[in-house]
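This part of the workshop introduces the protein records we will be handling. The question running through the whole workshop is how a given chain folds. To make this concrete, we reproduce a full record directly below:
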Amino acid sequence: MIIDLHSHFFPVEALQNPGKFLDRAPRIVLDKGKLSVTSQIGMRAGLGAGAYDPAARIKALDEMNIDVQAISPSPILLFYWEEPAVAAHFSRKQNEAIYQVVDKFPDRFVGFGSVPLQNVADAVTIAEEAKNMGLKGLEIGDAVGDKPLDDSSFEPFFEAAQKLDMLLFVHPLEGGVDADDPLMPVLGNVLQFTFRTTLMIERMILKGMFEKYPNLRLCLSHGGGLLAFNIWRLDHSYSLRADLKKVIPDKPSEYLKKLYFDSIVHSVAALQFLVQVVGADRVVVGTDYPMAMGDFESVSKVKQLDLADGEREKILGGNAARALNL
């Protein structure tokens, strides 16, 4: 069974008819089958039916040779920038809509929900609701405003996520770049996304979060950003710093075995290196469907890797099944 852990689904009806806070809803335009969604931090335009229609999505899965796909909200719809009550409402609406898709097509989809991390108490409550609903994980951003995920205020959420045994799928957020720079629409996705993921996870490692929460499970999008290439520099810094050794007993690279990494690195060579660094038991298939920056040939790239017996099956589905507790 081939499992894709990185995709996004847009529950149009739930977003167009939220019940309340209509003035805070994202702008939805559906014209001749093409979807555009605009929130306060970004826009997704020209999306085909697979972005919002489960039947069309299943057709795309068959074309990509994907058996089961985890569907999660778009990062532009995490609502961290809103008032807590607004964010909580839209988190619940999207979670319910995603679960409805999973419930209708249980053989093809598993669901990731979202939580309003700007209010940790609400985030814990909604995480519990998502677990009870049957969602298998939660998508979270790399930060909440100016607060990194290693901020102590988020500790109750990570404690709850560990207790609930839910996979946390981490996707960087956009925004905070010079909108007048014509290169930033390109480099914001290509470089800013990967940098933000790298900064986030290296901070979490150095703050000892995987010592404090030894059973916390994270899956990093876009191959973990630059981590596989930068971890050795971090190891070297660790060897020179007595203060870091007081926080974490092992060098940073030892914590890679705590993480999952999706396969979206857009190169067989880069994917081979990622597997070499983190291990074949830590990499999962990702497509980022239906986004243009996704990789809809992820399965083909995995099949081209030079792997030992059994490792290919782990990457194609075994690791994801373990991460999802299937």
